[in-house]
Design a protein that fits this description.
- The protein is of the alpha+beta class.
- Helix content is about 30%, strand content about 35%.
- The protein is built from 3 helices and 6 strands; from the N terminus they run H-E-H-E-H-E-E-E-E.
- Strand 4 (about 70-75) and strand 5 form a beta hairpin.
- The chain is globular and about 50 Å long.
- It starts with 7 loop residues before the first helix and ends in a 12-residue tail after the last strand.
- The mean pLDDT is about 90.
């Protein structure tokens, strides 16, 4: 099975930000996975290709979840945050992405 080719401009827009929290830090230590906030219409192969392109690492697998936006209130006015997509990217053994070290 050969790897699909993607538009490089699209790949640069797929990953929005790393998702840094207590849970994502714990998962990074335990399972060698990194959490990213991604575009809502991104696919697993696109996310894999984007991470490999941006961070120069080898990706083992990608797990994706849709996060529902919370309902928030300000007095009587009720609003809702946007839904968003989160991707857990498992790196191959020996690979690492370090966000703390500034390049």
């Amino acid at each position: 099975m050969n790897a699909p080719t993607f538009n490089q401009e699209r790949l640069l827009q797929v990953i929005l930000a790393p998702q840094i929290s207590e849970k994502s830090t714990m998962i990074a230590d335990k399972h060698e996975q990194v959490a990213f906030r991604v575009v809502t219409n991104a696919t697993k192969p696109e996310i894999k290709a984007a991470v490999e392109l941006l961070f120069k690492v080898e990706v083992d697998s990608v797990q994706v979840m849709n996060v529902k936006g919370k309902v928030k209130r300000f007095g009587k006015i009720s609003g809702r945050r946007k839904d968003w997509k989160k991707a857990y990217v498992a790196l191959k053994p020996g690979q690492e992405i370090n966000f703390a070290a500034g390049e």
